[in-house]
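Input (ABC transporter ATP-binding protein):
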Amino acid sequence: MGVEVVVEGLTKSFGKQTIWRDVTLSIPPGEVSVMLGPSGTGKSVFLKSLVGLLKPEQGKIVINGTDLVRCSEHKLYEIRKMFGVLFQDGALFGSMNLFDNVAFPLREHTRKTEAEVRRIVLEKMEMVGLVGAEKKLPGEISGGMRKRAGLARALVLDPEIILCDEPDSGLDPVRTAYLSQLLIDLNAQIDATILIVTHNITVARTVPDNLGMLFRRELVMFGPREVLLTSDEPVVEQFLNGRRIGPIGMSEEKDQATMAAELAHRDAGHSDGSPDEDVRGVVPQIEPTPGLPNRDAVRRRKDRVMSIIHTLPHDAQQGIIASLTPAEQSKYGVLAGAPRTPTPYPRGQDTEWQRRAGDL
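Output:
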C-alpha cells in the first residue's frame, strides 16, 4: 500500500513573495487526493516541494519517518525513488521513442537486464493502454497519448506515491474522462498514494477520496471528499461551482465592498453568466473498471467520514448519508433523512483534520 505524507507548518517563498505559509495536512496512504486552487496559488510549487525539487523555508514533510526538508542529499535521493511524477506536458524526450522514454528511469536507477526492462516497460504500457505504440516518437502521437506515456514512465519504478501535475491540461473532456478512469484503475490495482493538482471541476468532484484547496497563500481546507463537496466555505463553493461571484477574483482576492456589490447585482436579477444554482452534494465517485479489484481506499475514507459526521453541519450530514448505499447505511447505523447520533472519536485515532473538523 502507498505511504502517508505528513506536512506540518510548511512555508515557501521566492524572495519576498510568500507562495503559501503554514500548510499542514496528512495525505492518507493508498488514497487519491486532489489539490485545487486558482491559478498562481502555488499548487505546482507544492508538488515540487513534496518531491524535494524545491526547499521550503519552514516546516516538515515526513515520509516513513524521514523529514525531506532537513535530510541529507543521499537520503533524499533514496526517498525520491518512492515517487512517480507525471508532469503537465508529460516531459518526454522528443528524440526517444515511447519505449525508451518509459524505460529511461529503469536504465538510469537500476541494474536490471534489458530483458527485465522490456518486461516491465511493456507491462506498464499495457496498464495505460499504449501497447503497440512502443516505437512511436512523442511528436507523432496525441496529447492524451503523451500523458499516458508520461504516466507509464512514472510507474516503472513501482512508486508508492504518484504526483500528477494538472494531468488534464490540454486534454479535451473525453480524454480527461479516460485519464480520470485510468488513475482510479491504477489505484485499485497498486493501492498507491496519488496526489493530483488540477483546475478541472469534474475531476475534483468525481475522482478523489480527499480534496484540498489553496487560496490567499494558505490551505483553506483539506479532508474527505464528502466534507468539501457539502461545504459552505465561500471560496470552496465558488470554485467547485465555477462562479464569478465569491472571494476569488480575476487576478487576486476581492475586497468586501466588491463582493457586496456583486451580490447586490445578482439579487437585483442580473445574470453574471454563472450557473443558475449552486451544485452542492456528494456526487458519485468514479469506480474501477469492471473486473478490477474494489478500492480499499473507499472503505477507509468512509470509515473516517462516519467517525466525524456528527461534527458537520446538518445539510452536510444529510448529503453524506444520502450518498451511502443501503448496505453502508446499515453498516454505519444510519437512515437517510435521520441525523447521526454523536459519538466520540476512538481514543488515539483523532488526526489533525478530525480535530479541526468543527471548523471546516
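The radius of gyration is 21 Å.
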